[in-house]
Design goal:
Residues 64-444 form the AMP-dependent synthetase/ligase domain. With 626 residues, this protein is α/β, with parallel strands linked by helices. A hairpin with a 3-residue loop joins β29 and β30 (534-543). The structure holds coenzyme A (COA) and adenosine monophosphate (AMP).
Length: 626
């Protein structure tokens, strides 16, 4: 069946389409109620189906005779470690860790917060939580204690799972002090913290509260999977919005399992036994979907890589991993390949490795710029596929559906809408624009299985943030257009979210931190172009009257952002200005400033309060202007 036929089937009869696709997974009890709506009118898939995600990812493969196949490869150039786990081995470890969690009182519906570096125990903790029908919330290791505390207060986890440290390129980052600080700062106090002690650094445990992972595992039994309903949450993953408070994206078991299996086949063309590598982090949605759940539910071998694209030890490291494990598909962010290209522009490193197993490269997380697209295509001679998605959807909204039809990727486009996603481009009033014209990218409801049904603890925020601007649609927060061949072009966010090295960050959150500084009268944070990271934040501050020494304030602010949000925010530039450009009603014109710094055509709204400020700013921006 062609892509067009499948897409149109999913559009005209979503219920029938996704009933058929529900058969892709092995339910304990197959669902009859395919699509339902709750009291808030939010959609849910497979409400009365019964399943267990950890069973689908592990036990099923063992039962079907794939127990000896490698399920997970751990490759850590930063610690010189390589490990491989078969499906049977991984199942036993997960079942035992589920028992450890159960012995700490974790049962179905409880939350478990996981703050781990890229080690197999992170995946084991996720799968063990799922095995109990509990709900995990993984927090990226680069976030600071304050961010952890905010998530602890929102998710109210019974248990926190962590490791003694993370290892970055040249430094060991102790995790335990950050966890202790977060426990101190949070209003809600989890009962227990389970700590995996790494050889590089041991952590001090707090008696009564902390449990040593290795000791607990030594006496654990194997815990059986607990059946859950299709609509029971599997996880909460926090992501940045326009305000300081992160949003807890909820993922339900049933729709997620179907979407994972479907997307591994349709979007990535992967079959059981294939080797899939998502070079990301378990703390991000890409890690959830395509390091852990997607490949394992599909019976593939997944790779968990603890390293960087460069410097661990060199720009050939991605290609080394691809050769060593015969990777069939590699997925990473454009920023990773820009870093490789910068160090190895002529592909000297890549020519050292045998990449004959590699069929395709996938990119997402930010726009794939044409230069990187061409460079990658030229040095690998492989299809380079850009695909577009969000934490909220959990899988790609647009891409190349290679499992249905190998459509030709187009430079600058993120592919075509994947069956299930009714993508439309709307104008300010919610009317569809003409093909080829730009506007707000919206998805007609219902979203397909696997996408968020709501925001944890905050259905109102789900409504106001996504559903009320254009009734009947989910608003993605991205702008773009669809060309005459139905390819989607993503042109950037329409809100105050920025993308730094493929990491989604909120400028609003940074502004909240900065405006709390005693010397700052007001501020604005904008995302400006960066050759390597795509975007980096630039903070503009106006000081209170009488404050004139600025360099120490700039350093204080950079430190504050590190402390409150984390080093990944990469706030490297702070600029003091006399005033900020505003509309007559007092709204700060962030877009105007971004356009000025990025050297784009500046669209000055007619409502600007005072035009002369633009000349002042131009002088102030100086060499920052690209
Ligand atoms: N734990 C603790 N700290 C972390 C961290 C983690 N898991 N990840 C990053 N950091 C820290 C870094 O050590 C760095 O700190 P520093 O300012 O003290 O040096 C800071 O956060 C910024 O890190 P990063 O964004 O990684 O920038 P970089 O300049 O060190 O490296 C790249 C640049 C391009 C190599 C890197 O950003 C990269 O690999 N990007 C790909 C990201 C990716 O795969 N995203 C995928 C989403 S699909
Ligand atoms: P996250 O939720 O962290 O995955 O970030 C999602 C956001 O990243 C999207 O809303 C886009 O702004 C951006 N994004 C992700 N993939 C792409 C892509 N292929 N092209 C352009 N932007 C992308």
């Amino acid at each position: 069946m062609s892509y067009k036929t499948q897409y149109s089937h999913s559009k005209t009869n979503p219920m029938e389409y996704w009933q058929e696709k529900s058969k892709l997974i092995d339910w304990y009890q197959a669902p009859n109620n395919i699509l339902s709506q709750d009291k808030d009118d939010f959609y849910h898939w497979y409400a009365d189906g019964s399943l267990n995600t950890s069973y689908l990812a592990l036990d099923l493969h063992v039962n079907e005779g794939r127990g000896d196949q490698i399920a997970l490869i751990y490759d850590s150039p930063v610690t010189n470690t390589k490990e491989q786990y078969t499906y049977s081995e991984l199942k036993i470890l997960v079942a035992k860790f589920a028992d450890v969690l159960a012995s700490q009182g974790v049962t179905k519906g409880d939350r478990v917060l996981i703050y781990m570096p890229m080690i197999p125990q992170a995946a084991i903790a996720m799968l063990a939580t799922a095995r109990l029908g509990a709900i995990h919330s993984v927090v990226f290791g680069g976030f600071a204690p304050h961010e952890l505390a905010v998530r602890i207060d929102d998710a109210t986890p019974k248990v926190v799972v962590t490791a003694s440290c993370g290892v970055e390129i040249e430094k060991v980052i102790p995790y335990k002090p950050m966890i202790d600080k977060a426990f101190e700062d949070a209003n809600y106090k989890p009962d227990t913290c389970i700590v995996f002690q790494r050889d590089v650094l041991n952590a001090d445990l707090i008696p009564q509260r902390d449990v040593d992972w290795q000791t607990a595992m030594a006496t654990a039994e194997e815990h059986a999977p607990v059946p859950v309903l299709g609509t029971d949450p599997l996880y909460i993953l926090y992501t940045s919005g326009t305000t300081g408070k992160p949003k807890g994206v909820v993922r339900e078991n049933g729709g997620h399992a179907v979407a994972m299996k479907y997307s591994m086949d349709v979007i990535y063309g992967m079959k059981p036994g294939d080797v899939f590598w998502a070079a990301s982090d378990v703390g991000w949605v890409v890690g959830h979907s395509y390091i852990v759940y997607g490949p394992l539910i599909s019976g593939c071998t997944t790779i968990l890589y603890e390293g960087k694209p460069i410097k661990t030890p060199d720009a050939g490291t991605f290609w080394r991993v691809c050769e060593e494990y015969k990777v069939n598909a590699l997925f990473s962010a454009p920023t990773a390949f820009r870093a490789i290209c910068k160090e190895d522009p002529n592909g000297a490193e890549i020519s050292k490795y045998d990449l004959s197993a590699l069929k395709r490269l996938y990119l997402a997380g930010e726009r794939l710029d044409p230069a990187t697209y061409h460079w990658l295509k030229d040095i690998t001679h492989l299809p380079v596929i850009d695909h577009w998605w969000q934490t909220e959807t959990g899988w790609a909204i647009a891409g190349i559906p290679v499992g249905i039809e190998m459509l030709e990727p187009k430079e600058g486009a993120a592919g075509v809408a994947i069956p299930g996603f009714q993508v439309e481009i709307l104008d300010h009033d919610g009317n569809a624009v003409k093909q080829g014209e730009s506007g707000y990218i919206a998805i007609k409801l219902p979203l397909p299985p696997g996408c968020l049904p709501t925001i944890w603890n905050n259905p109102e925020r789900f409504k106001t943030g996504y559903l009320t601007s254009f009734p009947g649609y989910y608003v993605t927060g991205d702008g773009g257009f669809i060309d005459k061949d139905d390819y989607l072009f993503i042109m950037g966010r329409t809100d105050d979210v920025i993308n730094v090295a493929g990491h989604r960050l909120s400028t609003g959150e940074m502004e909240e931190v900065i405006s709390n500084h005693k010397d700052v009268a007001e501020c604005a944070v904008i995302g400006i172009k960066c050759e390597l990271k795509g975007q980096v934040p630039l903070a503009l501050i106006v000081l209170k009257n009488g404050v004139d020494e600025t360099s120490h304030i700039h350093n204080n602010l950079k430190e504050l952002i590190r402390e409150q949000i984390g080093a990944i925010a990469s706030l490297k530039e702070v600029l003091t200005v006399d005033r900020l450009p505003k509309t007559r009603s007092g709204k700060i014109l962030r877009k105007v400033m971004r356009q000025m710094v990025d050297g784009e055509e500046v669209q000055v709204p007619s409502t600007i309060d005072d035009m002369s400020i633009l000349d002042e700013l131009k002088v102030g921006f100086g060499s920052l202007i690209s």
